[in-house]
């Protein structure tokens, strides 16, 4: 029969080891905030530099207005990204904008930081859009649903009908908020 002190010590050691091991594995995803995806010092308001001062008074069909909007869109579509996120396992909240969906669910989508982005308003800067792809369709998710998405993140531009993303994610898990 083992000595009771050794058994108690063994249990204490196992509990201590589990206390260290479990938290590290329980949440393998690095939780991100959207502002972390933009390089420090990058200012999205730079999209308005050099635009005509009377832009708000121009008609939408005016060539000056079109040129100004094209310049702004180019600036935002080329927003810088951070290569340091390449290969990281991350978790991020956002809103789902489907790109490819079928009866089984959504397999490709954009993850955006605020409701209505890319659907009801112009797309955010590319560094605030993540193109997400899942090997298996994700059932039960709807347009502009608030979700948490986890997976491998990489800095990679992707053009879609809904906007240009600066990041790409191989989705491991998506769940409603």
List the helices and strands and how they pair.
Elements: H1 4-26, E1 30-31, H2 63-77, E2 88-102, E3 105-112, E4 130-138, E5 146-160, E6 163-176
Describe the structure.
The structure is a single chain. This protein is an alpha/beta fold. The protein has a domain at 30-43 and 82-176: Beta Barrel (OB fold (Dihydrolipoamide Acetyltransferase, E2P)), CATH 2.40.50.870. It has 2 helices and 6 strands, in the order αβαβββββ. It has helices at residues 4-26, 63-77; strands at residues 30-31, 88-102, 105-112, 130-138, 146-160, 163-176. Strands 2-3-4-6-5 form a 5-stranded mixed barrel. A hairpin with a 2-residue loop joins β2 and β3. The chain is globular and about 80 Å long. The model is unreliable at 13-26 (pLDDT under 50).
What Rg is obtained from the alpha carbons, in whole angstroms?
A: 23 Å
The H/E string reads HEHEEEEE
Indicate the percent of residues in helices.
10-25%
By CATH's scheme, which homologous superfamily of the domain at 30-43 and 82-176 applies?
Protein of unknown function (DUF3299)
> Unreliable stretches, pLDDT < 50, 5 or more residues?
13-26
**Average residue pLDDT:** 87
Q: What gross morphology would you assign?
A: globular
Alpha plus pi helix count: 2
Which labels suit this protein?
five-stranded mixed β-barrel; globular; single chain; alpha/beta; 177 residues
Question: Can you describe this structure in just a few lines?
Answer:
This protein has 177 residues and is α/β, with parallel strands linked by helices.
